[in-house]
Write a structure and sequence with these properties.
Number of strands: 15
Largest sheet: 9 strands, mixed
Number of domains: 2
Distance between the termini: 39 Å
Strand content: 25-35%
CATH class of the largest domain: Alpha Beta
CATH superfamily of the largest domain: Dihydrodipicolinate Reductase, domain 2
CATH topology of the largest domain: Dihydrodipicolinate Reductase, domain 2
Helix content: 25-40%
CATH architecture of the largest domain: 2-Layer Sandwich
């Protein structure tokens, strides 16, 4: 018997791409558990794989919570995370909340406080924390004789119309401010990765936001360029873009004796040491995205089994929400703003 089959029932709130990804990963990890997907949206979504995988579909969250689920994934739009957390924490203490944690820093803090009050164990769905490429990039940073980090650049570009080919991009979560859209919230992996790979963000030094070039409601940012100061005086620049027709995701770390560059979409890492030619030093598994989703699901279900309460993931994700808010403020005010590290 699979040990995770004892974790049943499992509830996944949200039938968008993230909710379906979590439900399918959990089905693979716990093949005999009862898993239910909550579908609130009236929109057409590709649910064929869900139906083939013996995953139930419900339209009423409260009825499914009455079944006392042992584990719950909240993969609803970011603007509904606090409302859903209030409902869920009264019925289940083992929760995974899809990133971003919330659409505002204040709401993120409320979720953290709510989890503490209920004694809930909460993981946040930054699946790139489980990516082979990101993990290997950290290992190479620490093992190669590259010296000290002097700066870093993180970037991601892909036109909104390419993100979710099954739906009208104008109606997607990313395109709508009322659902927590925009590149800063939707592409917050890059901000989370700075903490993982470089160090604690201390301030947002400057930022430029754009609002055109993609089919949105006109209220969410479509491009974001911002400069961060990290502990130790390291400067990190981030470019996020949902107007670029050519998908790319490149993370570069510059050292005083060389450079590491990761192509996240291809799972490749290149190194330049002491002026030597650029060299491929790592190639990830081609199924890396699927593997990361499974590894994240495995970590979540393992936490459920051990009943461990680790608030680090939750507080780090609230910190990311604060950084995003300060990027907006820096854009509006035009001067550097420090980031409060009290919750990270």
């Amino acid at each position: 018997m699979n040990p995770f089959d004892e974790i049943s029932p499992i509830l996944v709130i949200g039938s968008g791409s993230a909710g379906r990804r979590h439900a399918l990963a959990l089905r693979e990890l716990a093949p005999n558990s009862k898993i239910t997907l909550i579908k609130r949206s009236p929109g057409l979504q590709p649910l064929e794989e869900i139906n083939k995988s013996n995953i139930g579909i419900s339209h009423v969250l409260e009825e499914s919570l009455d079944e006392k689920p042992m584990a719950v994934v909240i993969a609803s739009p970011a603007t509904k995370h606090l409302e859903d957390a209030r409902l869920v924490f009264s019925h289940c203490k083992n929760v995974l909340i899809e990133k971003p944690l919330a659409h505002s820093a204040n709401t993120a803090d409320q979720i953290v406080n709510l989890a503490v009050r209920h004694g809930a164990s909460v993981m946040v769905g930054y699946h790139l924390r489980f990516s082979e490429t990101q993990i290997q990039l950290l290992k190479l940073k620490e093992s190669l004789d590259l010296g000290s980090v002097v700066s870093a650049q993180f970037g991601y570009g892909q036109h909104l119309s390419l993100w979710r080919p099954f739906i009208d991009p104008k109606n997607s979560v990313t395109a709508r401010s009322d659902l927590g859209g925009g590149v800063l919230l939707e592409l917050s992996h890059e901000i989370d990765a700075v903490d993982f790979l470089i160090g604690k963000i201390e301030s947002v030094e400057s930022s430029e936001l754009g609002f055109h070039g993609a089919p949105t409601d006109g209220l969410v940012e479509t491009t974001a360029d911002f400069r961060l100061k990290v502990a130790g005086g390291i400067e990190v620049t981030i470019h996020l873009d949902m107007t670029d027709p050519n998908p790319w995701r490149i993370w570069r770390i510059n050292f005083d004796k060389g450079m590491l560059e990761a192509d996240i979409l291809k799972g490749q890492i290149f190194a330049t040491l002491d002026g030597s030619p650029r060299k491929l030093v790592y190639q990830s598994n081609l199924a890396e995205r699927r593997t990361a989703a499974l590894d994240q699901g495995h970590a979540f279900l393992s936490n459920v089994q051990s009943r461990s309460i680790d608030l680090h993931s939750l507080r780090q994700s609230a910190f990311v929400s604060e950084v995003i808010e300060i990027v907006h403020r820096t854009f509006l005010l035009g001067y550097p703003i420090p980031v409060d590290n009290r919750n990270s």
